[in-house]
Amino acid sequence: MKTKKINITFVLPNLLPGGAERVFSFIAQNIDSKKFNATLLIIGHSKDAAYDVKDINLVFLEKTRVKDGIPALFRYISEHKPNILLSAAGHLNTVVAYMSLFFPKTKFISREVTVLSLDAAFFTTKKKKLNLLGILGKNRFNFFDKIICQSKDMQDDIHENYNIDIHKITVINNPITDGFKLKEQKTKNNPVQYITVGRLSKEKGYERILKLLCKLNFPFHYTIIGHGPEKEKLFALIESYGLRDKITHIEFTKNVAEYLEKCDFFLQGSYFEGFPNCLIESCAVGTPVLAFTAPGGTKEIIKNGVNGYLVDNEEAYFEKLSENRLWNPIAVRESVYKKFNKNYIIKQYEDLFIDILK
């Protein structure tokens, strides 16, 4: 007798370039099609899609903002009645949380992307008399059947700062997606090649990387891949440090792996992270990482001296930048494939989906 498939709808605000978008769509496409019927539902526009989605049902609501897509999302759930709905990203998770009250037969799962209390504190400049969205967002966790975090720090943050039962929260790291092949072993580049892949935003700490790079007394080149609100400020800083000729900026590319392969070190300056996909991707091709110790998933990825370094301050960061060490790409790659290979991570998602319906 055939077992009835579980119908799952994965919901994202858009398919614009971003780690959450890539990983979420990857998970949707790679769960077992013999057990699950997967639909990827995008609030945004099909013309903005940066990722190819194959072998599953793909639906675009063609709305510019999440709030504009609320009626269409409500109609979709009413008509299709998925067994499970899994959403990602803050504003969308807030909308879905309260929408769940109208669909008691559907299990609702939230996938969070950062250490929320730190994110809120980092970007709060002044207190508002009434922040309704903030209040709704803070209480959204009560309405989900399960909450997925990508790191232990994220789980602890939601448990401690939002008063949510620890058993309601599960930690599933992000997987290494396809296309990240081991680079050939080689000597260090001359000039030394550094790279950072990530959103150009305040919490990513680009300014402290630039501050240290300008002090180096040997030839180097630094590639930045990403876009975001801090672009103008960062390039003003680059000019002031006299680094313009030593930096290449690429807003978006589907060939991230090729750039990672050609570099000697991935540089992370973040003040906090949820689970930085770019770090496991860099290690997956054999390129080590230099990062500051920070809340979030970074310390679950980096093993000091094995696939890079975690340092506590700028002095130590500068010391490692200047180090003339040769790394073994095979050892760097193996350090992350043991924990974050796609088969292992996808099975964790599948087990969660089956268990939540018992």
UniProtKB/TrEMBL annotation:
<feature type="domain" description="Glycosyl transferase family 1">
    <location>
        <begin position="184"/>
        <end position="317"/>
    </location>
</feature>
<dbReference type="InterPro" id="IPR028098">
    <property type="entry name" value="Glyco_trans_4-like_N"/>
</dbReference>
<dbReference type="GO" id="GO:0016757">
    <property type="term" value="F:glycosyltransferase activity"/>
</dbReference>
<feature type="domain" description="Glycosyltransferase subfamily 4-like N-terminal">
    <location>
        <begin position="17"/>
        <end position="176"/>
    </location>
</feature>
<dbReference type="Pfam" id="PF13439">
    <property type="entry name" value="Glyco_transf_4"/>
</dbReference>
<dbReference type="Pfam" id="PF00534">
    <property type="entry name" value="Glycos_transf_1"/>
</dbReference>
<dbReference type="InterPro" id="IPR001296">
    <property type="entry name" value="Glyco_trans_1"/>
</dbReference>
<protein>
    <submittedName>
        <fullName>Uncharacterized protein</fullName>
    </submittedName>
</protein>
